Amino acid sequence: MSSISRRTFTAQQKLQVVLESLQRDTTIEAVCRKNAITRSVVNRWRDEFFKKATELFADKRSASARAISQGFEPGQSPEELKRIIGEYATQLEIVKKAQGLLGLQ
């Protein structure tokens, strides 16, 4: 019975391997040999890197994107609630004016 221990890598080490594998003057095979890891591990780390990178650079200017990034459910962010309240206030003013014009007060 052989005891194979798995190596663990820190996030910094994984990032270093991924960035190294993205350089033009090196190959993935060379990075794998240098760090004694398989190509599938490097590919998995690269995939995770690119998936998280798109989240990092997502457009956070819109209220809904900011709210989701801060952990709010859609429709619950302070900006969205203010917008909804503003719409209801406008609708209420319209109804009041319509009632006044129709003499229903």
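The above is record 1. Record 2 follows with the same two-line structure.
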Amino acid sequence: MTSASNLIRRLITGSALIGAIVYVLFWAPIWVFGFVTIAFVGLGLHEFFGLIEHKGIVIERWIGLGVGLLIPASIFWQFEPTKGWELFFMLFAFFVIFLLQLRHKDNSQAILGISTVLFGIFYVSWCFSFLIKLRFTTAPGIPDGRWLVALLLLSTKGGDIGAYTVGSLFGKHSLIRRVSPSKTWEGVIGGLLFSVGGALALWKVLPGVPPVQLALLGLVLGIFGQLGDLSESMLKRDSQVKDAGQILPGMGGILDVLDSLLFTSPICYFYVRKFFVGM
């Protein structure tokens, strides 16, 4: 496939995703937002566990998927059996995976199998679940949590687009060649500028937040978004695959789209709680 045709497929897929996100976030009933978020967690976990199995590591995939889906579902429906219930679910998975490991005749990969499933739950499910928490966050000057989710998406994915575009057009100095040969320092700078711009684009709909705070948050999200992208590239390189999946033409898998958001979702939530809600 030529780079031009791949770019066209990427643009078509990206446009369709943007349209779907706008609909789900602003026009669809709130349960649709919850369903889509939980579905993305499930698909992302499925692809992550596929990377692990590609390395020949035996894991308890269904336990990981089950607990991984319980975390965002419990947050959305506000099912809180105990304080810190998310850790409760992860502890439950920890015990169950250990028990199931005992039935294997070969325990040579026990540490790898147990730790990678737990890491997947934390990395994909717990981190992305902060998107739901952000949706339910309100404060003076923040009319609706939907705009906070929009802020996260605009800043994070805007940074992705900026890094890709600027890096493709002007990139000359490699960032970390052994992890991702195509990423450049020029792309990093472009991504950060786009992230800040994406955050500032919403200053009129977030009247209670000073523009300097939006710009600072955009910069923070830009940094962590690119770290998230690099981290997933490292995982794929370790598994010796180009993309985590093939569900999205021109883009790869769900995990390839979520990678930056897995880092920025919790960062955005805690930043908003600390600096926006307390204003």
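The chain has ten helices and two strands.
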